[in-house]
Design goal:
Blueprint: E1 5-6, H1 9-14, H2 17-26, E2 29-34, E3 39-42, H3 44-50, H4 54-57, E4 67-68, H5 70-79, E5 83-90, E6 93-104, E7 107-115, H6 120-139
Parallel strand pairs: 1-6
Antiparallel strand pairs: 2-3, 2-7, 4-5, 5-6, 6-7
Length: 148
């Protein structure tokens, strides 16, 4: 399997401080869901976006979370294939999410739901910046595509 996160079951269930630090500093929000479809971890960003806290949802079924689009989570848990830029409604906000399987010894033991952009406005700004950068690069090259 490629494009998966490898963790032991103990690491996943503990949601260690290292995982907490990594997720809080690399994505806007994250949730870890076990193979049994229970909430293991919700990042601080997830609580800020949705109002749903780890203290209230730990070990509860994902059905209790305000997530529309759980079929995508089920699919990743089933086939172990990462899904990128999946539109989902999380806490009544439409967001793009990445769903990454978590694997231990070749077995799917969970899924990581990552919210990379807190809002579509941030995503639109990122796209505009990328488009401006590409336009600048095109203007700086001659007709043959070689830089001046």
């Amino acid at each position: 399997m490629e494009h998966v996160v490898s963790l032991t079951k103990q690491d996943l269930m503990a949601a260690t401080p290292i995982i907490d630090t990594i997720l809080d500093n690399t994505v806007d929000a994250a949730a870890l869901i076990s193979r049994e479809r229970r909430v293991i971890y919700l990042s601080k960003g997830f609580e800020e976006i949705t109002g749903q806290s780890l203290e209230d949802y730990r070990e509860r079924p994902i059905d209790d979370l305000k997530i529309d689009g759980q079929a995508h989570i089920e699919q990743v848990l089933s086939d172990g294939i990462r899904q990128m830029a999946v539109p989902m409604e999380v806490g009544s906000r439409k967001l793009l999410t990445n769903l990454v399987p978590i694997v231990s010894d070749g077995e799917i033991i969970g899924v990581m739901l990552l919210i990379v952009f807190r809002s579509t406005a941030v995503l639109k700004r990122a796209i505009q910046t990328l488009e401006r950068s590409e336009e600048t690069a095109r203007r700086q090259s001659d007709p043959d595509g070689f830089p001046k």
